[in-house]
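We examine the record.

___
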Amino acid sequence: MEQQFKSGFVSMVGRTNVGKSSIINSLVGEKVAAIANKPQTTRTAIRAIVNRENSQIIFIDTPGIHKPKTKLGNTMIETAFGVINEVDITLFVIDATSENIGKGDRIILDKIKEAKIKTILIINKIDLVDREHLAKLIDLYKDEYDFEAVIPVSVVKNKNMDVILDEIESNLKPGPAYYDIEEYTDQTLRQLVEETIREKALRLLDDEVPHGIYVETEKMKSRKTQNKERIYDVDVTIYCIRESHKGIIIGKNGAMLKKIGTYARQDLEKMLDTKVNLKIWVKVKEDWQNNESLVNKFKL
């Protein structure tokens, strides 16, 4: 008997810096979410698609749970919790190095209990702890909720990634393929460009600067060179909240901006499989994180 095709939507929730975006990128096999060792890297719900022989799994990466201080922060939290009620399965990602259930994890647990949603507990960074610590953490969480499964993983060691997909597939219902099997994200090229540049800024800039920026693609156009080679002309603006931040982003003699642009262009050329002519400007837009019309762009 031929196996029925399954499909469904899976949310990824957790505190900041537990590795949600890294897990999604690993499962998809493509970079669809910005990764940086800084909190609040993900700002909106990002869809990533895994096509398997008998299933299509649509992951929704959500902003990390944190204490909001701006309208943008409030929107991020609303997005993260709003997704829980609209999916088939939730992956709750925690850090293996946790000693107990912290305040942020407790808030997420309460939301999951309230929604009574099918949930798989993912314990990331198991390469940093011993078996005894891991066993205690598993027991701690098993007492809190009837998880469909508890899966210890390590993204850096690529351990148990396939187990996550197998477990999700076993919990999905029969359904159609919602996206073309060649697609791995529903983001537009412009959005991928913005995420790529923002990721490089997050990685390279001082702690206080990156979360005060947003990136906007002004132009993205494909053309042929004189040698008949395809090239993308991409114009981007990085907005920041202070004049002093603008100076840091540009750097002495433009060095920092050049570095951000070089790393971003290298990634974009791999992604687009063509040459990229990337131009980046930096502008100040004070307190944009509390600007209603701009913050609305980050809503689900």
User: Anything to note?
Assistant: The radius of gyration is 20 Å. Residues 35-43 have pLDDT under 50 and may be disordered. The chain has two domains: 6-171, 189-298. The longest strand covers residues 214-224.
